[in-house]
Amino acid sequence: MIKARDLTKRYEDGVLALDHLNLQIHPGQIYCLLGANGAGKTTAINLFFNFIEPSSGRASINGFDCTKNPLEAKRYTAYVSENVTLYGNFTALQNLEFFAKLGGRSNFTKDNSRMVLREVGLAEECFNHRVKTFSKGMRQKLGLAIAISKQAPALLLDEPTSGLDPKAGADFVEQLLKLRAEGKAILMCTHDVFRAKQIADLVGIMKEGILVMEKTKDNLKDEDLEKLYLKYMEAN
Amino acid sequence: MLRTLVRKEILESLLSFKFLVATVLCLTLIPLGTYVNLKEYEQRLGDYQEALRIYQERSEGNLDLGFQALGYRPPSMLSVFSVGLENVLPNKVATSKDGNVRMSNEQGINNPQSLLFGKVDLLFNVSYVISLLALLLTFSTISGEKEDGTLKLVMSNPVARWMVLIAKIIGNYVVLLIPFFLSIAVSLMILETSGLVHFFSSSILSTLLVIVFTTLLFIFAMLNLGVLISSLSHRSITSIVILFLCWTLLVLSVPRISPMVAEILFPVKSQQVINIQKSLLREDLGKAMDGELGDLYASLALRNGLDPNRIFTQGRTDSENKLLSDYDSSKTVIEHRYEQRIALEVKKLDEDYESARRVQSLVAMNLSRLSPVSCYTYVMAEISFTGPLEAENFRENATRYQDEVKENLYDKYILKKYISKSGSANSISYAAGFNPQKAQVPNMNYRRVGLSEALDREWVDIVAILLYNLVFFLASYVSFLKYDLR
Question: What is the mean pLDDT of the segment spanning A183-201?
C-alpha cells in the first residue's frame, strides 16, 4: 500500500535529507519511523504527498506514483500532522465537513460528521465550538477525525502524539489500533519509542536521512527498543 | 471540488475580523462621500444657474461695443462619483471682439482644507480604501495558511494547486463585493431620493454600468495582486511588509511622481507666460500696424494736398472726402495683413505650447500607467466628465462659442480707425440690418463629451487594468505552482 524505493531527496543547498529510503507497509500494518529531529522522517512524508519532488527514487501509494500521479495517490492517503491547526473560526463540524468533501466525500453529511467526531472521542458539546478554542488534544482528535472521514486506505502521521498528555496520547493510540484493525496501512513518524513499541508492526530508525534499522514486532519482542534507538543515535 | 474550496474561502473571510472592518469602512465612507459630493454638486449647480441668470438679465439691451459675451460650464452630474478636476477646471469663458478667449475658474477657494486633504469620492474610496482592503483580505491567504499548517492539510487531498488558487481569488472577491455593492446601493438610494440625480435614466445608466464594470475590474486586479504577494512569501509578516510596499508604490507614489518626472524631463512654460507672450505680440504688431497706417494716412494726405497731421473723420471738402475714401480702401489691406500675421503667430505660440504640453502630458500619463490605480483614475475621471478630456472639451466649447458670438455679434460692429502722425480717431458703424438695441446674445450651448467618445479615449486604460489582472494572476499562478508547501 505505502511503498518507497530508493527514495532520495537532496535540497538545492546540497543537504541530503533522505538517502535511498526503502520501505513497504501493507494493509493492516503500522510502521513507526523513529529518529531525531532532522533525521528525514518529515521529508519522507512530504515526498509521499508530493509537497516536494524527490531527487531520485520512487514513492507510491496503492500503486500510484506520488510524483507522476500525485492527485490519484492523494486520493488513497490521509494525513495527520504534529500540530493540527485547522480553520480557527470554523466549528469542528465545519472543518470536518470541508476536509471530508475535499477528500472526495462529496455526500458527507452533518450526521456523518457527528458520527466520526463521536468515534474519535470528541465531546458532543464541542462539535459546534470554534476550533480556535480547542486544546491541542481536541485538535489532534479532530485531525484524526478528518483523516478517518476520508476513508483512505493509507494514513501518514507526522508525530501526531507529540505534546499530548498521557490520556490524550493513549486515546489517540487506541484509535490507531482500531484503524489498523480496519485494514489501514499506517506510517507514523514519531519520537515516542514507548508508543512505537506498543503499537508498531514494523519499526524503522532513521539517522541523517538513512534508514539505519528496520525490525518487525516479532524481532523486537526480546529487545529494549529505547536502548536500541540510543545505540543507533550515538553510533558514528 | 472548486465549489467546496470557494465556499470555504467565502465562509472563512466572512467570519474574519477583516470582513467586519471592510464592511464598516465601505458602508461608512462610500455613502458618506456620495452624500457630501451630492451636496457640493448641488451647490455648484446652484452657483452656475445663478451666475447664468444674472448674466442673462444684465446682458439684455446692453450691447455696446465693449460688450463681452460670457459662457458658463454647467457642473458635471457624475462628479458625485469622481470629483476629479471639477473644482479646478475653467467654468467661465469670456469672448472678445479681437478673438481672444479667456477661460477662468471663478469658484474660488471656499474650503481650503478640502482642497488640501482631497475629496472622499467613489474614486478615492476605491483607489485608496478598497484597494487596501483587497490587499488586506488576501495578503495572508496563502502565506497565512502555510504558516498555520492548513495549506499542507488542504494539499494532502486530491486537489490541484490551480484550483486552490482560483478558489482563493473567487472567494475573496465575492466577499469584498458584498460590502462594496451594499454601499453602492445605499449611495444610489441617496442620489435617487435627492431628486437631483436620476441614475436610472437611460443616458446615465450606461455610464453607471461602465463605472461599476471598471471598478469591479480594478478591485479584481488589486485582489490578484494581494494573492500574488501572498504566494511570494512563507510568512504573514513578510507578506504584510510587501503589501504596504506595493500599496505605497502603486497607490501613493507612481500616480504622483509620474507627472513630476514628466515635468522635469519635458518642462513646459505656464499658460500665464504664454498669455503674456501673446499679449506682447498683439501689442507689438498692433503698434507696427498703427505706424504703417499712420504712414499711409500721411502719404494720402500729402497726395491730396492736405495736412497729414490732421484727421478728417467727417469729410467736409471733396479732397478731404477723397482722402478718407482712399484711406478706408487702402487700410483694409494693411489691417488684413496684420490680422493674418497676428493670427498666425498667436496660432504658432498656441500650437507650440499645446504640442509641448501634450508631450509632457503623454509622458506623465504613460509613466503613471505603471500603476493600475492611475489607469482606474483616468477612466473614472473621463467618464465622469471631470478629467483632462473635459478640459479639452471646455476649450472646444469656448472656441465654438467665441466664433458664434463673433459671427452673430462682434462682426456686426464695424470699427473704423483713423491714424495720423499726431493721433488717432475711431468711428463705429453697424452691419446692415443689425440693431444693437434688439440684438440677442447667443447662449453657450455647452456640449458634453459622450460616453462613447470618453471610452474611445479610455479603452487603453481599461485594457491596461485587464492586463494587470492577467499579469498578477499569471504571476501568482506560477509562484503558487512552485510554492514550497513544507
Answer: 88
